[in-house]
Design brief:
single chain; alpha/beta; Urease, subunit C, domain 1; TIM Barrel; 2 domains; eight-stranded mixed beta sheet; six-stranded mixed beta sheet; about 30% helix; Metallo-dep_Hydrolase; signal; hydrolase; Amidohydro-rel
Length: about 425
């Protein structure tokens, strides 16, 4: 019986994995002008009646349509977006999109590598641009992602992609942007989400902390020398010390964050970002002083400790933002790939719990772009930046009104059709629904 179930699952999985790829859009060949929409620029500014133009994949015009005059035929295509909203494309950081297709099928799971210290592991070469999950998140405005490995103490190197490509090389926005370190926790929890257990001190914390320190110290010493034999693992850390890569430290507890920052600074790491940061609000002054941003863990969650405010996850972004810390949102955790589509609504929740609406938008646009080091290329609607943007019928941070009519990646008008929308159309036809 179990064998039969396995065979059926394997056949089903192969049928999904071999399904025809949705062809990426062709390079932009005609200039496009979007008129009369409310433009949310991603930097806190709004233009109520906007004119957004782009040519050959780059934004060439961002203006108030009421204050400018355009020559007739200045743009090949004009889209009247009256009553609609224009946004920069949303960015999903710390994501395993394209690294795992079906958790139960080992051959489709490339999110982690054997070993504990793997700075040389490059997640991008395992990225599957043909993943069926990817097409399901674009209709909510998520057009870029940071593809990030998992596992080990140092998981490896992430890269940033746009989500409409034939393969990983076509998808690249920034290759090997940073190395991901899973800092040890100072305590251990037992139990599960449905049956909480006890909390006790991690007796191995000092040892685990020391192992990371020793590794970074050894890597720095190796790079300062002229070794006869090449050590690929140490070679891979060079960007941390010369400022070309960011050290993304995955840590949630106050002590974790403080110890991790101190360790990284002492070893000469130039750029640091905290990923998770559940208790980062307790270290906000330290973060702000050292210009360290936070990619905040999924806010649609329960408080982790019984003495925390019930709404702490929802208001965490505001607590940090009010202290001057640059905050982005990430969505790792249970069922993270399919839940990526909910990223805009995490920002909407932050707005509902005190954060200004346009600042909440920055959590998944400009702020994230800045923390990933791609803010000169994308993250806001500004002249000279990539024309990666979309038009929505309503508020993109509200699941009730976020309905995209058009989306563009580097000026290319992409398809918003998915296998889910196809099935929706099929069954609407079957039951005579409009």
């Amino acid at each position: 019986m179990n064998k039969n179930i396995y065979i059926l699952l394997l056949v089903f999985s192969i049928s999904i994995l071999t399904k025809a790829q949705q062809a990426p859009a062709s390079k932009q060949s005609k200039s496009i002008l979007i008129l009369n929409a409310t433009a949310h620029l991603g930097n806190g500014e709004i233009i109520e009646n906007s004119a957004i133009g782009f040519v050959e994949g780059k934004i060439t015009l961002v203006a108030d349509a009421r204050l400018i005059k355009l020559a007739q035929g200045a743009y090949d295509i004009t889209i009247d977006a009256s009553g609609k909203h224009v946004y920069p494309g949303f960015i999903a950081p710390n994501s395993t999109l394209g690294l795992v297709e079906i958790d139960a099928i080992k051959s489709s799971d490339d999110e982690s590598e054997i070993g504990n210290m793997n700075p040389h592991v490059r997640s991008i070469i395992a990225y599957n641009a043909d993943s069926k999950v990817i097409e399901t998140i674009k209709p909510n405005g998520i057009l870029m992602a940071q593809i990030t490995p998992r596992g080990g103490r140092i998981s490896g190197t992430s890269s940033i992609v746009q989500l409409d490509a034939w393969n990983w090389k076509d998808a690249l926005i920034k290759e090997n942007d940073g190395i991901h370190l899973n800092f040890p926790s100072s305590f251990k929890r037992s139990g599960s989400w449905f049956e909480p257990g006890t909390i006790e001190a991690n007796k191995d914390y000092s040892k685990q902390h020391s192992e990371i320190t020793t590794f970074l110290t050894s890597a720095k010493a190796y790079l300062a020398d002229s070794p006869k034999e090449i050590n690929l693992i140490f070679e891979a850390t060079k960007g941390l010390f010369d400022g070309n890569q960011t050290l993304f430290i995955h840590a949630n507890e106050e002590k974790q964050i403080i110890d991790a920052i101190q360790m990284a600074k002492e070893n000469g790491v130039k750029k640091i970002v905290i990923v998770g940061g559940y208790e980062a609000y307790k270290t906000a002054d330290l973060l702000q002083k050292n210009n360290i941003g936070v990619l905040l863990k999924r806010v649609h969650d329960m408080p982790e400790n019984e003495d925390h405010d019930i709404d702490l996850p929802y208001k965490n972004a505001k607590l940090l933002t009010d202290k001057g810390v640059i905050v982005g949102l990430e969505n790792s955790g249970s069922m993270e790939r399919m839940n990526t589509r909910n990223l805009p609504f995490l920002a909407g929740t932050c707005a509902a719990y005190g954060l200004d609406k346009e600042k909440a938008l920055q959590l998944i646009t400009f702020n994230t772009a800045k923390l990933l080091g791609i803010d000169k290329q994308c993250g806001t609607l500004e002249q000279g930046k990539d024309a990666t943007l979309f038009i929505s019928e309503g508020d993109a941070l509200d699941m009730r009104t976020n309905k995209l009519t058009n989306a563009f990646i580097q000026g290319r008008m992409i398809s918003l059709e998915t296998h889910q929308t196809k099935m929706n159309d099929i069954y609407k036809t079957k039951y005579n629904q409009k």
